[in-house]
Amino acid sequence: MDPDLTIVLLGRTGVGKSASANTILGRAAFESKTSFKAVTTGISEETGRVFGKLIRVVDTPGVLGWERQLRKLCGDVLRSSTPHLFLLVLSVGRFTVDQEEALRAAVNAVGPRGLEKSFLLLTGGDLLKDRPLEDFVREGGDGSFSEIVGQFEEAYHLFNNKDGGREQVRELLLKAGHLHTGKSCGAELRMVLVGRTGVGKSAAGNTILGRRVFRSAAASASITSVCQKETSLFAGQTLTVVDTPPLFDTCRSQEESEKEIAKCVSLAAPGPHVILVVIWVGRFTEEDKETLRIIQQMFGEEVAGYTMVLFTGGDHLEADGVTIEDIITKYPALHDFIRQCGRRYHVFKNRSRDPAQVRELLKKINTMVQRNRGRCYSTEMFRAAERRLLERESLEMVVLALRREAETENQSQCVLH
């Protein structure tokens, strides 16, 4: 019988790969002990039923010295039709040169495609005691550690292989989108579309809903002037899409546009599951760059966990022989924004009527929702972001007033002398 999921563990010798594999399966399937020498001397696998899923777990030897074999293993897993998850294992503690070298080797083994299906698995959860994992990740080392962990964004998890119980396994599978809570099946999925004039927001909304409900036309002037909410059904799931007026609208001030866009959160009450930042693939302009900054400013830092970039005009990529990765790499501001949003993006061919592109987008969004444990970007988060923005603006005004006062005083003293 084919497994429902394949999990591959990669990492340096002694970080707890075999112990983690046993934790996942709930039994001592692999030999595991604390040792500086390798216990696992070859690639081995075991299968077991975990929370109703048949899971194949692949344990591997220390990655250093096995790079070629592990690259082939990961390539075979990626080419298979079975859902898969790569766990790059790192033990809690001091981040040494050896650990960095091994982790980089593991990242290279899975490759760019595999990294999208990867989680950083930190072992030794018992050593953290009551310290939050996020604090350890944020404060846990030098630039090398931060750089590598940054590639995973929120895709990391902590195991206590001594006495952590089964809930930590359930949580990992939920985060990775390989276990469903039961609540998400058929539940409403709320999304908000934001972007500048002319990027195809309304057309993207029509593509998602499968019918023409938002006014859309190829034009430099905007058609959408107020937030509009529409609902449809796709594969048994209720989709609610809120289209917003564009930023940099020639027919209204920027302040008016931002004030109208702010209504989208309450219109999607209790809050959107995802904010889709729509960008046209043809050209990443200064207005697009400023749009990304405004979104981060308006919605606050927390919005990154609920954001995905939706590229429109995918038809042009094929015609020009360019990949979306080429576009992302070309523009540092865009690359950095996507990295902050957990490397989440999707490409639409708005002229295509193939529902597969919508199905794939919804799969990505539902995976994100599961990682967020069903939570949405709430009105409370938005109000908190508004308060912080007002406080920052008030502080800047005070600083500016003090600076002007000091300059006036200096000028007065210069006149006296």
Could you characterize the architecture of this molecule?
There is one protein chain. The chain is built from 16 helices and twelve strands. The chain is of the alpha/beta class. It has three domains: 5-175, P-loop containing nucleotide triphosphate hydrolases (Rossmann fold); 189-377, Rossmann fold, CATH 3.40.50.300; 390-417. The strands form two sheets. It has a six-stranded mixed β-sheet, with helices on both faces.
What kind of sheet is the major sheet? 6 strands, mixed
Residue runs with pLDDT of under 50 for 5 or more positions: 182-186
Count of alpha and pi helical runs: 16
**What's the order of the H and E elements?**
EHEEHEHEHHHEHEHEEHHEHEHHHEHH
Q: Give the overall form.
A: globular
Strand content: 15-25%
Computed CA radius of gyration, to the nearest angstrom: 24 Å
Mean pLDDT: 82
Assign a percent range to the helix content: 40-55%
Measured between the Cα atoms of the first and last residue, the distance is 93 Å
> From the helix content, strand content and strand pairing, which structural class follows?
alpha/beta
Give me the CATH superfamily of the largest domain.
Answer: P-loop containing nucleotide triphosphate hydrolases
Number of strands: 12
